[in-house]
Amino acid sequence: MCELHESGIEWIGAIPSDWSVGRIGGLYSLRNQKVSDIDFQPLSVTNKGIVPQLETAAKSNAHDDRKLVRVGDFAINSRSDRRGSCGISAYEGSVSLINTILSPNGEMNPRYYDWLFHTVQFGDEFYRWGHGIVDDLWTTGWQDMKRIIIPIPSVDEQEKIASFLDKKCAEIDLIVSDLQSQIDAIEQHKRSLITETVTKGLHDVELIDSGIDWVGQMPQTWISIPNKYLMYKVKNICPVYDGEDILSLTTNGVIVRDLDAGGKMPTSFDGYQRIKPGNLLMCLFDIDVTPRCIGLIKNHGLTSPAYSQFVMKEGAYAPYYYYYYLMVDYTKELLHMAKNLRHSLTEDQLGAIKAPKPPYDEQVEIANYLDAKCEEINAIIGEKALQLETLEEYKKSFIFEYVTGKKEVPST
Fold first, then answer.
1. Largest CB tally within 10 Å, which of 122, 210, 309, 352?
2. How far is CA 57 from the centre of its chain?
3. Which of 399, 410, 396, 406 is nearest to 111 (CA)?
4. Structure pTM?
């Protein structure tokens, strides 16, 4: 192992004694040629590198407002909210003006610097050199970026490190991919279990047609009934904020917004409503972009006027209908009915949509069964998600230690 010495640069720390440091501007030159995306293939700069323009990318009619990218150039998004979006281009094309395009100078191994520029530590340093009014509009231009100091190993060492990280990180990525596939399969099993249970019940009984397309057949002792006979909307407007918890509807349910962990306090409480445990919370606006449209309220607090709070009528059990509408939300059935431009439903439209109504005791039985099963499944998913998180953190640390020479590439 080569002896280490302090680089004198805080974000880099110690490096091998035979390495040097230098500014990015000495290694790269700026390519700042404007071109048209009609003449040059439009590309996107992502955290997975440079790819053909994504369907989700914001597009403009100003076709000439693009920057030229040549094969082998390094492109990096200058905005802080796109941290980690960078890479070596395998394409000739054009990218958004918000990106900085760099052409390598002299002899180097660009793959080594690609690994270095993807580290969290470089991302923090890149951000530190930026300017802006607010965090999410913070940008780091070339005039500042070129002054950032980075480690400079020999070209042979750059090649060794890049090749080693290519191989080892590919192995880690395979494990990550396998774990993610396992999580996806377990999540799909949970969805299937919920669908089967809320539409067919827990007992082997004769089935009849429900008359509801996404339900199909249901037990003969159940009925199909419009939602307006199952629940009604309430809106308990909050006249003044008095320190209550702020609740949000998320993919993890109706949760208390953690203001200490970066959750934002509303700028205004106009229209905010008090909500009560045991009621349903639904999002009926912009259903096409809402990650989750249904939640079961478990805490007192305040929530956005964008949500609708429903109280169950006699004979309807909120936890059963939470699971039922969770099933509906998985396949976005409500979205198919929201035909207006805002992809939204009114209370009356929701009230007219039919839902199954099992006998009340069965609703309770189904909800209790799914509570227990989903708790077991979520524990397994949580364990695998923790493994994923651990692997991702290990990979980040692993890369940084090798690109800064704190660990030496094995000779075999």
1. 122
2. 16
3. 399
4. 0.83
Domain of 306, CATH number, reads 3.90.220.20
How far is residue 36's CA from residue 30's CA, in Å, rounded to a whole number?
18
d(CA 118, CA 7): 20
- Supply the DSSP string of 122-191, one letter for each residue: HHHHHHHT-B-SSGGG-B--HHHHTT-EEEE--HHHHHHHHHHHHHHHHHHHHHHHHHHHHHHHHHHHHH
Distances (CA, A) of 192 to 189, 198, 290, 357: 5, 10, 21, 20
pLDDT digits (tens, 9 = 90+) for 85-110: 999 999 999 999 999 999 999 899 99
Q: Are 296 and 321 a contacting pair, CB within 8 Å?
A: no
Both tokens of 159, joined, read 């090649």
Among 111, 134, 153, which residue terminates a domain?
A: 153
Q: Assess contact for 121 and 69: CB atoms under 8 A.
A: no
* Alpha-carbon gap, residue 55 to 26, rounded angstroms: 36
- Which residue pairs from 195-204 have beta carbons closer than 8 angstroms and sit at least 24 positions apart in sequence? 195/327, 195/330, 197/323, 197/366, 197/369, 197/370, 198/320, 198/323, 198/324, 198/327, 198/356, 198/366, 198/370, 199/327, 199/356, 201/358, 201/362, 201/366, 202/362, 202/365, 202/366, 202/369
Q: How far apart are CA 346 and CA 355, in angstroms?
A: 17
Rounded CA gap, 185 and 189, in Å?
6
The answer to whether the Cα torsion of 13, 18, 19, 21 is positive or negative is positive
3-state SS assignment for residue 312: strand
Q: Tell me, yes or no, whether 349 lies in a domain.
A: yes
What are the pLDDT digits (tens) for 201-224? 999 999 999 999 999 999 999 999
Q: Which of 137, 153, 169 delimits the end of a domain?
A: 153
Is position 107 within any domain?
yes
> Torsion-angle region of residue 360: left (phi > 0), alpha (psi -120 to 50) or beta?
alpha
CA 349 to chain centre: 31
Residues 68-85 pLDDT 10s: 999 999 999 998 778 889
Residue with tokens 């509009």: 137
β-strands 20-23, 14-16: how paired?
unpaired
The whole domain housing 255 covers 223-357
